[in-house]
Specification:
single chain, 7 helices, six-stranded antiparallel β-sheet, Chorismate lyase, about 240 residues
Length: about 240
């Protein structure tokens, strides 16, 4: 398996990272899905012409990051990310992932000021053509895409929204600071992803997803409407209620 060495600021990429990045990229792209048995240490060593000790370091680090699970005498498996869960409370996805001891990463796809369609304006109680802020962000847990966030924001409630660095702070965290939540309305459905969502999540158009739509208010004013699309194989929505 011929691969071109990546360069780091201090020189060529360490040998074990060839294996680690190969496995990470394969999991992120869906080549290997949760529960799949990964190539053995011997197979990886032969493919990359590396020692088993070097390959073992790559597998050890992926295990520590929660991306794979190793069973002695059997092999290495892709971690069961479908155990990831959320509740119906409005929580920051970064905090949810951090609470599981995993690494969160947000990649911004688009951020712009748009004119509201008639349907969008009605949702916010505005006139058609009124300005709205629009963002599309993909959230990753340990390098695996688990959520595509397609969000509209009322500029009157968050005038500086477009100036935020969403690689450092999530929209939820920012909006809860500038427009304290007073009400939230949800719809939840199992459906297929839109074309862009499938592309950003690295899944097929036929792969089922869990889609949460949420409209939140602050002091009676609609602040944000968001569509959260999760690959069904990587996400479980759960919660509890008590009278």
């Amino acid at each position: 398996m011929a691969t071109m060495a990546r360069k780091t600021p201090s020189g060529p990429e360490p040998q074990y990272l060839k294996v680690k990045n190969h496995l990470r990229d394969g999991i992120a792209s869906g080549r290997w899905v949760p529960g799949d048995l990964l190539p053995s240490e011997a197979e990886l060593g032969a493919a990359f012409e590396l020692s088993r000790m070097t390959v073992n370091r790559a597998l050890r680090e992926l295990t520590q990051e929660g991306m794979i699970e190793r069973v002695q005498g059997v092999g290495s498996f892709v971690a069961q990310l479908h155990r990831i869960s959320s509740t119906l409370t409005v929580r920051d996805v970064h905090e949810e992932i951090a609470a599981r001891g995993h690494r969160h990463e947000a990649r911004l796809h688009s951020l712009a000021k748009i004119k509201a369609t008639a349907e969008q304006a009605a949702e916010f109680g505005l006139k058609a053509g009124a300005p709205l802020f629009h963002s599309v962000i993909v959230h990753f847990e340990n390098g695996v895409a688990i959520q595509c966030e397609d969000r509209l924001v009322n500029p009157a409630c968050a005038p500086d929204y477009l100036a935020q660095d969403f690689a450092q702070v999530t929209p939820t965290h920012y909006l809860l600071q500038v427009a304290p939540l007073s009400e939230a309305r949800y719809t939840i459905e199992a459906t297929l992803p839109a074309g862009l969502e499938a592309k950003l999540l690295g899944i097929a158009r036929r792969d089922p997803c869990l889609v949460v739509r949420r409209l939140t208010f602050s002091r009676g004013v609609a602040v944000t409407s968001v569509r959260l699309t999760h690959p069904g194989s990587r996400y479980l929505l759960e919660g509890g209620f008590q009278a």
